[in-house]
Description:
Blueprint: E1 7-9, E2 16-17, E3 31-33, E4 38-41, E5 55-57, E6 62-65, E7 79-81, E8 86-89, E9 103-105, E10 110-114, E11 133-134, E12 139-141
Parallel strand pairs: 1-3, 2-4, 3-5, 4-6, 5-7, 6-8, 7-9, 8-10, 9-11, 10-12
Amino acid sequence: QLTQISTIALYSNNLEGAIPSEIGNLSNVIDLILxxxxxxxxIPSEIGxxxxxxxxxxxDNTxxxxIPSEIGNLTNLQNLYLDSNQFSGELPTEIxxxxxxxxxxxxxxxxxxxxxxxxxxxxxxxxYHESYFxxxxxxxxxxxxxxxxxxxxxxxxxxxxxxITDGC
Length: 168
């Protein structure tokens, strides 16, 4: 019911449990900073209602499941930190809609499948620098999009069905 609040900074507070779906009611939130807690469960799809959001820090929790496709509604998002959780599944193609994104941190999760080509539409990210782009220590499968191929770091590819050709 805090509909006028613009910043939620509850990091490093030993918070437990799921992020409530009512988070979507806080349409004026610009900064949602919940890193370094014990939050669990999935990111509610209602996160997509936070269209004014510029900073989303959910890193260093025990969140799981897939990133909801509604994340693509957050077109003002500049910083997306989801690293050091237990996220799985494929990245939604909607991630390419985050045209203002300058930092994307997805390292140390269990993401799998191929990285969508839409990630190359993130023109404001410095893929060369780990503090701006970090997706290592996941289960992403090759082939990787050209824009990130040199920056995927270590990936566990043992469950990938990569077709190896011998040039024939």
